[in-house]
Amino acid sequence: MLKRWSAAVLAGALALGALAGCGGDSAGDGGGDDKLVMGFAQVGAESGWRTANTKSIQDSASKAGIELKFFDAQGKQENQIKAIRNFITQRVDVIAFSPVVESGWGPVLKEAKDANIPVILTDRAVDTPDTTLYKTFIGSDFVLEGKKAGEWLVKEYEGKTEPVNIVELQGTPGAAPANDRKEGFGDVIKADPKFKVIASQTGQFTRTDGKEVMEAFLKAHPDIDVLYAHNDDMGLGAIEAIEAAGKKPGTDIKIITVDAVKDGMTALSQGKINFIVECSPLLGPQLMDLAKKVHAGETIEPRVLTEETTFNQEQATAALPTRQY
Ligand code: GYE
């Protein structure tokens, strides 16, 4: 899985970039249309992270003087595929998107390539073996995020021998962050048999589903020690369910989440969440920069990693006043 972007072939980018820039714009409306046009197909608006990510992309496009055609796919892969086909028909200069799920992108990416329109993946990866179908992938290392969550847990229960019952709220089925955060966490905790994942189910990265699934977990399992949620929103929904069940989140049930959006950080500083692994949504500035480079035919790195940290209660309290999202 880790190798999927390692062999992007950038040769010929100059010729392709030039073609994409001045060819095929049949509208020919003259004057001032040498502005770079980017088609962006967003996942949806499922979480605080996504809202911050959309804002970052829109703000940075206007700052960079890039014309953004923004499409919200409302969580559906078929909507994203349609949007990408539309961008190809409109002959935008660059297509960027955050793939809802990892699989099923080969044909549409091939269509973009055949039309000489460069594609940049943002935030989430695809699993196509042909890495020449996109120019670069910019975003986080989700396996590493899962590992950081697991490592915190291992330290937290160091020296203890009793079983630790864990429930997991997974992200959208088939999405890279759901697959990888599960994998990274599982890899770390499996070293010690006292850690037992007693239930693991999707909460679709949303608060509503996080709450609902946690209610079911609480009914089925009276003995939950830890909740690992693949994002803050599901963790926040689960906190409501835990409180409604008369338990104390952060104390009776320890909670680990991923993202570090403001609401999550607030809950962490109040002791309702115990640990958050950061995943930055502020990908806009780097994306616009890379789009300009690709369009100019410059060689770019096939993988651009986002820098991230982790937060405990004190660190969240210190970071909150200046948190942008
Ligand atoms: O963690 C979650 C969002 O793809 C990294 O998607 C993103 C994830 C993020 O819905 O909150």
Please give a structural write-up.
A 6-stranded parallel sheet has the order 2-1-3-4-5-11, with helices on both faces. The chain has 11 helices and 12 strands. The longest helix has 17 residues. The two termini are 30 Å apart. Strand 6, helix 6 and strand 7 form a beta-alpha-beta unit. By secondary structure, it is an alpha/beta fold. It is 41% helix and 18% strand. It is elongated, with a radius of gyration of 21 Å. The N terminus is likely disordered. The structure holds beta-D-fucofuranose. Beta-D-fucofuranose binds next to helix 2 and strand 9. The site of beta-D-fucofuranose has 13 residues, from helix 2 and strand 9.
